[in-house]
Every structure is written in structure tokens, then in C-alpha cells.
Amino acid sequence: MANPYGPKADPGPPGLAAKLLGFCEELRGEGVAVGTSEILDAFAALEHVPWTSQADFREALATTIAKSQDDRRVFELLFDRYFFRAAEAEAVMREIGERGEGEGGEAGAASERLDIDELREQIREAMMAGDEDAMRDLARLAIAAFGRGEGSGVVGVDVQRIRRTLGLTAGNQPPTEDGQELPPIDRSQLNKFERHLRRELERDLIERTETLPPSRPLAELDRALPTSPTQDLAAVHRAVGQMKRRLATLGHEQRGRKQAGHVDVRRTMRASLETGGVPLRLKFRPKRPRRPEIYVLCDVSTSVTSASVFFLSVLHALHDSFRKLRSFVFIERISEVTDVFEHERDFAVVAQKISSEGGVADISGYTDYGRVWLEFLTEISDELDPRSTVIVLGDARTNGREPHAEVFAQIAERAGRLFWLNPEPKLYWNYGDSVMAAYERYCDGAFECWTTRHLENFVNVVAGGTPVTE
Amino acid sequence: MADNSVNEVKDALAEVGYLADEPAALVSFLAQKLGKPVLVEGPAGVGKTELAKALSRATGRELVRLQCYEGLDEAKAMYEWNYRKQLLRIQSGGAEGSWSEVQDDIFGEEFLLTRPLMQAIASPEPVVLLIDEIDKTDQEFEAMLLELLSDFQITIPELGRIEAKTMPIVVLTSNDSRELTEALKRRCLYLWLDYPAVEREMEIVRLHAPELDETLARRLVEVVGMVRALDLKKPPSIAESIDWARTLLLMGAEDIDRETFNQSMSILVKHRTDIDLVAERVGMKLGESVRPQG
Fold first, then answer.
1. Range B6-70+123-192: architecture per CATH
2. Which residue among A64, A245, A286 places its CB closest to the CB of B179?
3. What residue ranges of chain A have pLDDT lower than 50?
4. What is the ipTM of this complex?
5. Does the pTM exceed 0.80?
6. Are B192 and A69 within 8 A, CB to CB?
């Protein structure tokens, strides 16, 4: 009998314990910190939970192993995949299949009579209702109709092909031929349907080939973040949320009782006991950290058009997370837009307001970094102190104008930290009119940033406290 | 509380007025079985603190609560020496007692002021210990908690180790405003509470405002759901749904139309920009959907 795991992987000893360990191993592979103590907890928890109930089993594992929401998301994805694969492997071992005469024949016959339009309607309804079971059945039906035979063999390609054949797209729907308005399809619902398609295709493939395909790291599949500049806001918000939490813990390590503040009477008295009630040694209250003050400068000129939507959404998300945040947009001149963000919650309106009344009204439409620094220095720099963080979002393309790097250096000196996020790949820095190098040496860190992934990287570096300047 | 199965825990919690969903019931059950602390995270107002209170009611245990805040230190959380009393002791007995006697004496339990954590450990009866909003403290405080959370003991340099006489149920809550340390998470069971589904929230609202008509309750919960779906600074919590339900009862409202909504909206939404947004988005919808019926 063929080994369903393929030649390389070791199936390990049978039994639930081995499966669980394998599962934890996969979780670790995806970056979830599963320690031995977590595994022991999981086993202890499972002793008290009937393993026949999937919900309880899953929850008991999740509560002991996945210790944050991000971990939980990975856990959910892996749990489904891992135990699905485990079950399929078992099925292949025991030569249990669904293909045979029963369902396969039926579906094959049905496919000839199947009306694409009708199927599409049913899928649409199932997606609207969020009915997972119906979606699964319909996915199987769709595969039976146009999945077999002409399949490319690559699951991801087939999923998209079937989706296109069915004419399913997210967002607003074109009206039907008889002029009926159709409700828009929710992106997440469509994703769910695609997931069902993928799973059924995989199941199909496993049955046909009687081997399990090598499991790929999650990052390639479901965890991948959108990579186009027009990011979905949710991903940006997530990354910024993470940044907020990191920044909140940041700087704590430098605090301690050594930094003198007010005298702590209680502790001084307590210490005075050792000297017979004479307060020889003063004890001080630890200093409270001040909230981080953040200044964000965002380039909204034409050279960064594609990235400014992303940048504005970053700004938008930052405003949700930090109270002491002042934001500026600039092209030739600088303009404070903190108010716009504070009074307007809707991102589309914010973007529109900034473009219409941002006050960066310019003559040429070309960025003038030098002038921007000068204006920023005269207007704002009095308020900068070592605790403030300045973040610049821009491409450092000066259009041949004076870069005024020495002014920038002054800003960098007054601010505690200065970061630069550049929407261009590092390869293009300093080519043409880009003067990134002139500014870069004054930054605590300069990063290429045009996807949420880069943003996360930025957050990580900032949190790690190791500025990367190369 | 008979804690033999998940469902029994769930029922017991329901009896004291807390409708737990499946994960919450399971984690509460496991917490008692395994004797491990529970870390509850989630947005504000989904009943994290309430879970601890309900556990204390359901188990008939006393609730010991430690509210965390920035700058909380061990003197306020664990124990403190009663230095006034110690001084008095030194001064009053200075003449006759030998020095070592006094020294042993002033670091006795008599001079110890217990704070919530010590109180939970030293209690002769088992308690429920609630450490509320742990994310508000700093990391040093978390580290200090580790000994307590894993071994249920506190070490006092002058006195030695104080071990728990009974096993407390420990519940930590966090609003997720900062990342907690791995070490702390490792010692806890993790529970994420989110806004409840329509059905469950309806049950909760009707449990706390029993006179509310069922269709009205459903409508209310749906409207709250609509409000939460907006991108608000502070989405309405479950407690606010309940408050709103009671307000509607007081107002004698029979249906939620635009007018009642605008009048009572301030119960749900408490931020000026949020109010504008909600009035614009949700208020409008209500007008449209109600008129054809009435």
C-alpha cells in the first residue's frame, strides 16, 4: 500500500497523542509559541472533555494552546487542515473512498443537466445566508459539474477557474438580464465558498492519487495579506493595532526606581525602620511613562499616488489607536489634518476632504521636501521633545529641489525618534531625483513600505528596539 | 456548583444570571478541573468581569477583586508591613525586650497588612480571585504575579513562603490594550470573549429586562448589531444594550422607530462623533424600514 504521507514525512506512531503532537509541531512551524507546558495542559484538559464532541475538543485545545487572537486565527486554520488531512490519510490507508459507483456517477449525470445560472443562484443564496453546509454541498456540485476532467491539477488554479465559470465576484453585482438588481456579495462569504471549493478539490485529488499533497506553510495560502497598494483597511488596522500594543509596552524596560521622582512617603517610612525610624534613605516614586507623542508627515503628491491611499489608511488607523497623534500632509507645503481625522470616521470621506481642503494647494504639484522641513521646523519643532516620535511617509523625490537635509537633521535631533517609510522598493532609492540617502542617515530607521507586511515588519523592528539603518 | 460536566457549569452560570456561550462555559469548567488561572480577553463591555462575578456567585465563593492600574505595586496588590504598628512596637517595648525578640516580633503576621492577592491566598475558604484589567499594569507587575499564578504561593522575604490554603479560581481580564508577556499567558487558559450572536444577546437582554416584548428585544439587538457594525470609537457593550432595553421599557416604546431611537441613542453611543455617525447611518435606516409596517 502506498504511504499516504509520501516518502519523506514520518507518519509517527498511531493514536491521538501522536496526532496532537504533530498538530502542535505544525503550529510551531507557523510561528505559534507552543511550549511543552501548553501541550501538557492540553492533554490535561482533554481528560476532562469528551473527545467525541468536536466543538468541545477544539475549544479545549484552543484555550490551552492558542494564547492570543492571532494565534487563535492560525489555530483555526490549521486545526481544520490538520485534522482534515489526518482523516483523509486514514481513509486512504483503509481504502475508503466516495468515488465508486454511488455519488460519483450521480453527480456526473447531474452535471449534464445542471444549469449554471441555477447553480450560481443557489450559491449566492447560500452565501447570503452564511449556510456553511449548503456551501459545502454546492461546492461539491460545482466541482462535479466542471471540475473533473479539465482540471489543471493545481488546486488554487482550479478554484479560481470554477469561480470565474460561475461568474462570482465580490462586491456589487451587475443586474441580471431581466434588469433585476442583485444584492452585493460579501468578500468574506466568497472567501468561505472558495475555501470549501479548495477543500473539496483537495479531497478529490487525494482520492484520485491516493497520496496527500505535501502540506504547504500557511503563509502561502490563507494567511497571505493583500499585496496591492489598495489594501483593505482591516489589514492595515490590524497591523497598526499591533503597533499600538507594542509601543505601549515599549520603554517600560528603562523605567525603574532609580529614576528619581516624587518622594514616596510610605516606602521611605518603611525603609526608615532599619535605621530606627530615622528616614536616612529617601525612596522615590517611579516615574510614570508619558504617552508616546507621534507626529506623522504624509506625502500626498502625484509621485506617490498609488501609495497615498495606503498611507492615508495607515494614518486613519493610527488615529484610531493613538490619542496624542498629530498628522500632516504635504506636497509643496505642509498642512495639519489632525482635525479632519478626529471629526471624520469614514475613510472615504477623510480621503476626499484631504484632497479638497487639505490646504496643501500647490502650484506645480511637485513635492518640495526642503520647504516642508523648513515649515515643519518653524511651526512645530518647539513642541518636539525626546519622547516624541516622528514618522515620515514619502518617497524622498525632491524633483530636483534643494533637499535641506541639514534642516531635517535638526528635526531628527529634537525628536526622540524619527522613522521614514518609503513606498518605493529599496532598489529605486537614490535613483533619479530620490535623495533618500541624504535623509536616511538622520533617521532611526528607514523602511520600504508598500504593503501591510512591510508595515508589520516596521512594527516589529520598532518594537524590537533595534533600528535598522542599512 | 456541581462541576462534573461543561453543561452543568453552563447551567449553574445561567442560574445566577450569566448566559455563557460554549467556550466560556468550557473554560470555566476546565479552570476548576485543572486549577489553572483563566485569562479573558476581548473588547470592552462583553462581560469579562461579569464572568468572574458569576463564577463567584455560582460556586458560592467570595469574590476578591484586584483592580489594576498603571503604577500598581506589590504594596497595594499583595501585602505591606504595617509600619506604624511596627514603630509603636519598637518604641513601647524598647526597654525590656531584647533586640532579636523585637526583630522577630515586628515581622510577624500581626504586622502584616493583607492586600487582595494575599487575602485570596490566605483565605480559609476557597475564593474567586479577579485580577481586573491586567493590561493596565506594567510588565514588572506581571512578573510578580507569576509565582502566584503557577504555584498559588507568595514569598515574603521576612516571613517565608505563604502557600494557598485552598485553591482559588483566578480570573484575569484584559482589554488587549497591550501585549501580555508570554510567561503570563503560558500559565493561563485563554478565553476570547466577543460580542454575542443575536440570539444569545437577545436572551441576555430578556434575562435582565424580562418585561421586554420578544419582537422588540429582537429588533433592539439587531439595531445594536447595526451600530456595532459601524466603525465607532466606542461600540456599545452588552451592558448598554441592557440599559437601552430598560430605557425603552420606561419610555413605553412599542417599536424602535427613528424618533425613539434618536431620543434614546445617547444610552448606546457616548462619543460625539459616534453620535453623529450613528444618527446618520442607523437612524435613517430605521425610518425607512419601520414606516411601511406602521
1. 3-Layer(aba) Sandwich (3.40)
2. A245
3. 1-12, 99-112, 217-231, 251-257, 465-470
4. 0.79
5. no
6. yes
